[in-house]
């Protein structure tokens, strides 16, 4: 039971950790890789795809240390939670929002439309929200749904390719129609 609690805690802790990495690394010194995601050129593989590879390698190494050293066995379960977050990120961000395998069932769910709309705001502005699975659109002082919808409808610097949110009602279609990746056969 403790092991599952450790894994679940690691999974939950990943969202704020990844939002911080996204803000301070990907939009900082790591911009050389992340730029490819914001200025998508139509390639199936982009430099930004190196981030999950590096993060997976670090997670595998952490789990290997936990498996090899008896006193650090909890690291295996931390790695399991991080892996769970990585799988959720892959499914939501790459498969649903960016449609890297084409449109999948569930892409029109309320949750996916909410995350896609927040991601479109980030792609247009290059600023908040930085979260991936639970993006925060407004500060704690501005919590009305009107202010959230207004922030989604206000383009900061015009559309930027990268995410498919054309089915959302929160973002104007003209601002989101060019955010899709092509279907695999295109």
Compute the separation of the termini in Å.
47 Å
Helix content: 55-70%
Tally of structural domains? 2
Rounded Rg: 17 Å
Estimated structural class = mainly alpha
What overall geometry do the principal axes of the alpha carbons give? globular
Order of helices and strands: HHHHHHH
Total of DSSP H or I helical runs spanning 4+ residues: 7
Estimated share of beta-strand residues: under 5%
Average pLDDT level: 77
Largest sheet: none
Low-pLDDT sequence parts:
138-186
What does this entry show, briefly?
The chain is mostly helical.
Question: How would you sum up this structure, described in words?
Answer:
- The protein is mostly helical and 186 residues long.
- The chain folds into two domains: 2-97, no CATH class; 110-179, no CATH class.
- The protein is 58% helix and 0% strand.
- It is built from seven helices and no strands.
- The chain has helices at residues 2-29, 31-38, 50-68, 74-97, 110-125, 145-153, 173-176.
Please give the structural blueprint:
Layout: H1 2-29, H2 31-38, H3 50-68, H4 74-97, H5 110-125, H6 145-153, H7 173-176
Features:
58% helix, 2 domains, 7 helices, mainly alpha, disordered C terminus, 186 residues, single chain
């Amino acid at each position: 039971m403790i092991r599952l609690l450790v894994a679940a805690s690691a999974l939950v802790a990943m969202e704020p950790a990844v939002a911080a990495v996204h803000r301070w690394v990907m939009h900082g010194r790591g911009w050389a890789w992340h730029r490819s995601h914001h200025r998508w050129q139509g390639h199936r593989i982009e430099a930004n795809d190196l981030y999950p590879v590096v993060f997976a390698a670090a997670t595998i190494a952490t789990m290997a240390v936990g498996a090899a050293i008896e006193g650090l066995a909890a690291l295996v379960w931390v790695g399991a939670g991080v892996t769970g977050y990585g799988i959720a990120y892959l499914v939501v961000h790459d498969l649903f929002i960016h449609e890297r395998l084409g449109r999948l069932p569930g892409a029109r769910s309320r949750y996916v439309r909410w995350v896609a709309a927040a991601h479109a705001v980030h792609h247009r502005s290059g600023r908040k929200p930085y979260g991936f699975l639970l993006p925060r659109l407004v500060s704690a002082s501005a919590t009305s749904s009107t202010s959230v919808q207004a922030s989604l409808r206000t383009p900061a610097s015009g559309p930027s390719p990268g995410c498919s949110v054309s089915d959302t009602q929160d973002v104007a279609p003209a601002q989101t129609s060019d955010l899709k990746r092509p279907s695999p056969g295109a």
